[in-house]
Every structure is written in structure tokens, then in C-alpha cells.
Write a structure and sequence with these properties.
By secondary structure, this protein is α/β, with parallel strands linked by helices. The protein has 16 helices and 23 strands. Helix 4 packs parallel to helix 6. Bound molecules: 1-O-alpha-D-glucopyranosyl-D-fructose (TEU).
Length: about 550
């Protein structure tokens, strides 16, 4: 495998509005991020992904972009961004930006011009279609509910397409002029020194421009989720992604991680092979298993055995091809500890053991802010505390399904995107040290005892375990094995254990994380050397015993 500069890195996702507020307006900002970059360096992070900071009305928290080359005043100025880049260079931290180009904002000047004159060039950057027999052009449902079609303002029978909110009009990738503008914008950011992009919702650009009707799905509104069209049109997305790769990414040797949900053995080479469209893609196998159901209320708890099965399947699929980015949570998902572990381990022990798996699977792991201190889901008491538009849509779906408000809230508290979006917990002072103002979201209930400052002072904390895991990834003796070593699954003795080998050229590591109640024992054949453990681990002459909620990394 050809070696690349980004192989072996450890990455971190920042959700800017919740990371650190420097000016007391209740929202995180760029100066706040710059202030905390040394903190990330101390943890051992190499690469940072910033969720969107572009000019935006904020309907979808910045995933609705009104100007791709301007910073939203909420986050600061372009000078603040340049200062952030300067600090990152000084610390040798790479920065990647969110590339949100399936859609823009209805406040983007392209869309405003398009609406003012549907015959103008900008209108061809969007999907404008006539209604059919007094109805929307087809029956697809948008990701945040309702039809993917809304009427172009002032028009009787002309609609525009949006796969997400109505304020997020989809861009027409079939238009070569639009594609050129996007590539120019990407180059502009790369010229500013960023290392690459996290590519948002990108498979949505695979569309059938005739917009046929689809077979309605079980939700019962006569519509079909818009993802069904993308599934049919992967080859269309591939064509555009290939062009983006050849024209922009490859010549700049940029790092890209795709938000791609449909990985299988047929498309993997094209996505992340040696000359793939992306450098890597997130491993969403576990998430996809949950979200295969059409609404939050239908999600079922994923047993550890299932989590193991799908995670290991992704590893085996990619062993010989390329790199995944293992994730347990992000700004679209509730906390991994709360989602994938049994309630017994919704605590520091569970967080450490899950972190061990997350950071030692083969790939470029992304840690989401707060994961390194073992944050669990935030809890809200009323629907008004949920900020995400998807939460409100899902709440209505629950009620329409006949659930009580109490049950709907319980479901949201487990499944909503808000659960991960609350402010970062820096210390035990007012608002967890996030802001001196009124935070835009309620601060997590555990902050008096669960925060960065307390954990940095406690050598036995989740934070120190993460730091040790990252240090292990960088240790010259094991770096090669952890980066390139083959993944090999080991059996699961109690239905709650993830155990695997990483087989490198110089050495082999054994990783075990037990999420059951009782202990498990694995043969080590010879005397193994413990490299890092959490919880209770006992090494015997030819075996190792790992108690419930514990993990071990051994050199065989
Ligand atoms: O998410 C794309 C996506 O597919 C989401 O529908 C995701 O699966 C869902 O939110 C999970 O509940 C990206 C961004 O990560 C997300 O924050 C944006 O809202 C979305 O694109 C639109 O830009």
C-alpha cells in the first residue's frame, strides 16, 4: 500500500458553536477554538475537522451555507480564521473544513437570483421543476420531513428540490459551470492552508434528473425517503466525485473523509482504494443498522454482539483495500457510550473500554468533542430544549404514531442529534467554563464532576486513557502495526466482547474490550506484555482475564 501523509493520524471533530465561547455571547467561536488548540495538542491530536463556520442563517446549524468564502459573524472574522490557521501551523495540527455542496442556503445569492428570475443562469444551479397535476414533481420525502419540493417563491407551479430542510436548496451537479465554481472555492480554501475536507452528505448528489415517483415506504404518508433515489444513482455521484478528485483533491494531495453510508464490497475500491474518490470514509456500519428504520421511534437498541458483528465486518471489508475512519459518535449521533453499551457501562469504565476499540481498529479514528472525557447523552426535560429541526420533526412523528409526549421525550433523549451538541465541559465553574453568557444549549447535567479540568488532574480518568491510547498509536515500536497491521477478529466468549488482533510486520497486538458483567479469558499462548489496560485485567502465564467493563492491549 502506498504510504500517505495522513495514515496513522488521530483526528478530532470540533462542533464550533459548542466548543468554547470567547466573547460571552453563548455560542462557541473561532477565537475560542484557537485558545484550545494547545489542549488538543496535549491530548495527542494530529488533525482537526471543523464543522461549518461559513456564513449561514443557521437553520441547520451552519449546514446551510449562504457564502462559502465568508466566516459567519457568530464565529468571528476571516482574520480570526487566519489566526487559527497560524496557531495550528505552529502546533503542527492539520485543519480540515466541512464541504457542504449537495445544497447551499436559500439565503445564498445564487438562490436569491434564481428565485427572482427562474430564467437566469443561477436558476440552472438548482433543480427547478414544474409540478405534476397540481402536485409536487414526485413523492420523495426530505430527510427532515415533508416533501423534497417547495414552491419557488412567487411561482404557481414551479418547485425547487431540497433533500434536507426547505432552506437548503439542492445544487444541480449536472451543471458544469456550477461544478467549476465549487472546485474554485475548494482550491481557495486549500490555498489558505487547510489540509482537506470532510465531505458532507455527498451521496445525495447522485440524482435522477427526471425525478420519477418511488414506491411509498412504511411511514404511511405515501412518500418514500429520498435516500432511495441516491441508492439508485450511485454511479452519477461517482462520476462527479471522480472529477472532483482528479481536478482538485489529487493534485493537492488533500485528505478527504466522505460522509458515505452505503459501503459494500462492490463500491469500496472506487471510494477508498489506492486511487479512490476519497482518502477515507467514516465507518457508519453500526449507525446504519440502527437508522435502517424510518423514524426514531422505530430504532431498536443494538446489542453489543450486533455492534461487534457490523464493526468487524467493515474492518474485514477494508483490510486489503483502504482506510475507514472509526467513529462512535458525532454531531449527528447521540453519544457512543449511551448508544452502544449496556446501561451498566454508561460510565468511565465503559468509556475507556469503548475508546480502546475505537482507537485501535484499523483506520484513522475521529474523536468527537467530549468523547475523550466519556460524555454520555445530555438529558432534556421539555421539547423546547431541543434545538435541532430534525428533533422537532421526529417528535411530531412520535405523536402521530400515538406515543405520549413523555414517551416521545424519552425517545428523543436517546436518539436525537442534540444529545451530542451540548457545550463542551471544560471545568466545574459556571456553564462548565464554556461561556460566561447564556449558553445556546443547556449544559450537560454531569459537569460538576465530569469535566476536562478534573480529568486532567486525575491520572485514572477517561481523558488520561485516551491520551495513553493516542500515545500508543504514535509509539515508534507499534505505529506501523496500528496503522497498517491487518485486523483479525477473535471470538466473542460471552456475547459482549470485542476482541481482535492487529498483525503487523514487526509485531502483533491483541485488543480485548469486555462489555459483559462477568470476566472473559483469552489464550495468549506465550507470556504477553500488557501495553495498556483499563478496569480489571489479570495476566497469567498463557492467558489473560478481562473483567466486565475492562479492556486490554497486549503485545503477543
Ligand atoms: O448529514 C447527512 C445525513 O445523512 C443526515 O441525515 C444524518 O444521517 C442524520 O442527521 C442523522 O440523524 C449531514 C450533516 O452531518 C448534518 O449535520 C446535516 O444536517 C446534513 O448533512 C445536511 O447538511
Amino acid at each position: 500500500m502506498r504510504r500517505q501523509w495522513w495514515h496513522g493520524l488521530t483526528a478530532y471533530q470540533i462542533y464550533p458553536r459548542s466548543f468554547r465561547d470567547s466573547n460571552g455571547d453563548g455560542y462557541g467561536d473561532l477565537q475560542g477554538i484557537t485558545e484550545k488548540l494547545p489542549y488538543l495538542k496535549e491530548l495527542g491530536i494530529d488533525l482537526v475537522w471543523l464543522s461549518p463556520i461559513y456564513k449561514s442563517p443557521g437553520i441547520d446549524n451552519g449546514y446551510d451555507i449562504a457564502d462559502y468564502q465568508a466566516i459567519d459573524p457568530l464565529f468571528g472574522t476571516m482574520e480570526d480564521f487566519d489566526a487559527l490557521m497560524e496557531k495550528a501551523r505552529e502546533l503542527n495540527l492539520k485543519i480540515i473544513m466541512d464541504l457542504v455542496v449537495n445544497h447551499c442556503s436559500s439565503e445564498h445569492e445564487w438562490f436569491k437570483k434564481a428565485c427572482a428570475d427562474p430564467g437566469c443562469e443561477e436558476a440552472s444551479y438548482f433543480y427547478f421543476r414544474e409540478g405534476r397535476n397540481g402536485h409536487e414533481p414526485n413523492n420523495l420525502r426530505a430527510n427532515f420531513g415533508g416533501s423534497i419540493w417547495d414552491k419557488v417563491p412567487g411561482q404557481d407551479n414551479l418547485y425547487y428540490c431540497h433533500f434536507f430542510a426547505k432552506e437548503q436548496p439542492d445544487l444541480n451537479w449536472f451543471n458544469p459551470k456550477l461544478r467549476e465554481k465549487i472546485y474554485a472555492m475548494m482550491n481557495w480554501w486549500l490555498d489558505k492552508g487547510i489540509a482537506g475536507f470532510r465531505v458532507d452528505a455527498i451521496m445525495c448528489i447522485g440524482k435522477d434528473p427526471t425525478f420519477p415517483d418511488f414506491e411509498p415506504d412504511p411511514l404511511g404518508d405515501g412518500r418514500c425517503g429520498c435516500g432511495a433515489m441516491n441508492e439508485r444513482c450511485n454511479d452519477v455521484a461517482d462520476r462527479f466525485l471522480r472529477e472532483m478528485h482528479e481536478r482538485v483533491l489529487k493534485p493537492r494531495n488533500a485528505f478527504t473523509v466522505g460522509e458515505v453510508f452505503c459501503l459494500n464490497k462492490n463500491n469500496i475500491e472506487r471510494f477508498i482504494g489506492e486511487d479512490g474518490n476519497f482518502s477515507a470514509i467514516f465507518d457508519f456500519a453500526a449507525r446504519e443498522t440502527l437508522t435502517a428504520h424510518c423514524a426514531y421511534f422505530a430504532y431498536e437498541k443494538l446489542p453489543v454482539s450486533k455492534y461487534r458483528e457490523v464493526t468487524f465486518r467493515s474492518q474485514e471489508l477494508t483490510n486489503d483495500v483502504g482506510f475507514l475512519c472509526p467513529v462512535i459518535e458525532n454531531h449527528d449521533e447521540p453519544r457512543g457510550v449511551s448508544t452502544y453499551l449496556p446501561p451498566l457501562w454508561h460510565n468511565a469504565r465503559g468509556a475507556k473500554a469503548l475508546g480502546t476499540v475505537n482507537l485501535l481498529l484499523r483506520g484513522v479514528p475521529f474523536i468527537y468533542e467530549g468523547q475523550e472525557i466519556g460524555m454520555t447523552n445530555s438529558r432534556f426535560d421539555t421539547i423546547y430544549e431541543f434545538k435541532d429541526l430534525q428533533s422537532h420533526d421526529e417528535y411530531q412523528k412520535c405523536l402521530a404514531h400515538g406515543l405520549s409526549e413523555y414517551e416521545a421525550l424519552r425517545i428523543l433523549n436517546d436518539e436525537a442529534r442534540d444529545q451530542c451538541r451540548t457545550p463542551m465541559l471544560w471545568d466545574d465553574t459556571l456553564n462548565a467554563g464554556f461561556s460566561t453568557g447564556i449558553p445556546w444549549m443547556r449544559v450537560h447535567q454531569d459537569y460538576p464532576h465530569l469535566n476536562v479540568k478534573a480529568q486532567m488532574a486525575d491520572p485514572d480518568s477517561v481523558w488520561h486513557h485516551y491520551k495513553a491510547l493516542i500515545a500508543l498509536r504514535k509509539n515508534p515500536e507499534f505505529k506501523d502495526t496500528i496503522t497498517y497491521g491487518r485486523f483479525k477478529a477473535l471470538p466473542d466468549p460471552n456475547g459482549h466482547t470485542l476482541a481482535f488482533l492487529r498483525e503487523g510486520e514487526r509485531n502483533t497486538l491483541m485488543v480485548i474490550a469486555n462489555f459483559g458483567e462477568g470476566s472473559v479469558t483469552f489464550d495468549t499462548y506465550d507470556t504477553a506484555r500488557p501495553l495498556l489496560t483499563s478496569g480489571e485485567v489479570h495476566l497469567n502465564a498463557h492467558s489473560v482475564t478481562v473483567a466486565g467493563g475492562s479492556s486490554a492491549v497486549l503485545l503477543l
